[in-house]
Fold these 4 entries.
Entry 1:
Amino acid sequence: MKKGITLDGIDGTLYDRFALTIFTYICQHVSHEQDAEDLLQQVFLAAFKNEGLTELPAERQFAWLLRVAHNKVVDHYRHLTRCTLVPIHQAWSLEDEALTPEQYTEQQEKYARLYQALAHLSPLERELIQLRFSKNLRYSDIARLLGKSEEAVRKLCTRTLCQLRGIYHQTERGSSNDTL
């Protein structure tokens, strides 16, 4: 290789010749200079990976780099629309949604009491609860499945929920008396 001739066959590298122009283009389309610098780096990383780019004339190289820069800007904005950015003062006020070990244990105990209470219901009442709350069916759909009127299903569901609530509270009081 001759002195002064680089891999792209011309004095000066691809970066030296086009970086400022590409950077200016990117800066016109993004709001932060740091983002523009990151995108410029991605453009030239793509150029580095494209072995055929060095064979093209300078105008075609520039056109290719400009097209890649455009695509990187578009990708940048697509990514921003998927990310929800929250100002730092609001981020501090957001609570951690994860349950503490105590809350998790308490939740598991409540589930156990609920399953005990459900066991006291008749098979029809359990099926009604499952259709309404697990499968999220409407009263009209449940009525068709059970061969009953919609009004009868509504009343049965109301009575079943009252009965279930009473059984649940009885088991809750029973378990709290056991710990005393």
Entry 2:
Amino acid sequence: MNVLFICNGNVARSQIAEALWNWHFGKTIGMASSAGVNPNYELADQFKVVMKEFGVPIDGHRSKHVNEFDLNDFEWIVTFSNEADEYVKAHNVSANHCHYDVSDPGWNGTIEQYRYTRDVIDMIVTGEWQ
């Protein structure tokens, strides 16, 4: 199964989800990618710190625009921002689609905000989110 996670800038939420999915399930279920509807093209340093704390590899991660992908190549698309959700709905894709309203720690978010976001997204990715 291949999954695409989308948020606004592709520097925090969707990057975290991609890294966690591939860490948990990349060798068993399938791989994930991530993108942004308005990517920043530079990953937040806080993202790098909180993923290292978990021991999750992020080598090769870069910010990507959603236009780099054919949305119909994915079985699931998961969105973390209203803008990303609207983008997917407007493109009438065949993939399954779900949306989680996860707060964006932003480019200048604190390490604590990034840890919280990482932990929430980890629960979503592993199915522990209620």
Entry 3:
Amino acid sequence: MEDNGSRAHKRQVKVGTVVSNKMDKTVVVRVEKVVTHPLYHRQMKRSSKFAAHDENNECNIGDVVEIRSSRPLSRTKRWRVTEILQRSALAR
């Protein structure tokens, strides 16, 4: 049975690539997905960019990161970087 008084919400989790880290404590993450064209049934890549909070300024361009939805942190930031999955070869 569900407890309706519970405030635990399932947060969205996405994996993407950092495309910009020029802001302080903020990175822009591109998330790609594959969709099927409704008429031609071909696979197409579509991408979205999300501004994510990076508390310690650890992310560099090209890093593969996991982001999780959160409360609004600013006008554009609604995501937080939870983990850096793969470091970029450019940062080395």
Entry 4:
Amino acid sequence: MMPLYAVLMLPAMARGFSASNRVPAAAVALDRNVAQQDKAFAVDQAAWTSSRFWLDFENELKAAGVARHGDVLARFDSFTHNLKTEKPGDIIALPSGQELHKQYIYPDLDTDWLRTPFPAVNTVPGTSTLASCAAIARDELLAALAKAPLRNDDGPDSATGNIDTGSGRNEPQQNDTPWNRAAWYGWQFLPLRAEQQAFHGTIARLKAEQVPLGHRFVGVARQRANCRGTVHSDHRNYMLSTLTPLVVPGANTCGVMGYSQSDGSRGNNNLHPETKVLGVGETVVLDNSFPHEVYNHGDSDRFVLMAEVWHPSLTPVEQLALETLFACRDRFALFEFAERPWGVGQKELMAAIESGKVEDINFWKQVSDNNPSATTTMVPDGSRREVVTSVDRVEVGTPQAPNGGPKKGKPKKSGSKGTKTSSKRGFGAR
């Protein structure tokens, strides 16, 4: 049976782009996303099938103070069993309408939780803080856009030309911009940690209030004018998305649509759409395991503070285990494949390589790297790994192949030409 999100995507692709959007550019965006998705899945699989990776993870979990006693990590262990054993890419449709990757199902989360595309805001910790961040995040965004312009939706992967920041003058193009094109045509994302100084007020507030942020996907999402995204599911059941509008073209111009099965059956005739209109400062919670799409019917761009948070049913210990797991995965991507993980800026990564912070697991966990951290970590045999940097390479002992054996060559140091970016937005960020 074709998954529901795939059925919905067909008409969405036909109606999703206005006359002002260029179909060739949309096709290029779709091709780019498929390539990014394939690359991200390949890196994930290399980690999940590597004995060295799992030894490294267990060492970091212990260092984080997580003791394996009783059944404190029973659900988490079932989750990692799925990562190791389920076939990559297999999607199942649940009676609720959710679309999940079997490999990434976190078990037994819904015992006391009713699944719906739009959970009540007051049931999700941290949402009041996100809403209260809207004003400062908006001011920081407008200032950041003057120095970090959007990428060109229609052309090569470079920054746009002059932009109007509302100051009455056009600002010059920047060749190096932290904005990422991904997911679908007209959508761009700026991770907060890629512009830490620009968003220092927002970051400080999120940290001070201990918002249960998921693994790094915290930033500003832009949707271009007169644009509708494709219907998709992020396929993970352990995360929720929050959208806090910062700039909208006008009242009732932007929103999110979620799709569920109204009576719990699998028939497409029972599809139930729900819409949440985006208003400035009003946080919306989206369970992105349901098929969903965003739209902007306005005549200018829409910007939201977008933060993924852990599912409320996860215990603090499980959240820490997940955070450590995906941080290990990102470090693995750098050292084994010279991949710059999603959300980490090029300049930040280069500085971290020079300082040795890339060895510290906390570097990979943070929404920003403002806190001092160690530059060495323990490896499974009890010795310390040292980072030796040169102009072109990062050396971390003997690189390992996915099966745990020796890997030929060494991963490249992140430079302007040396490190690729691993991106998964729009089809499951983690």
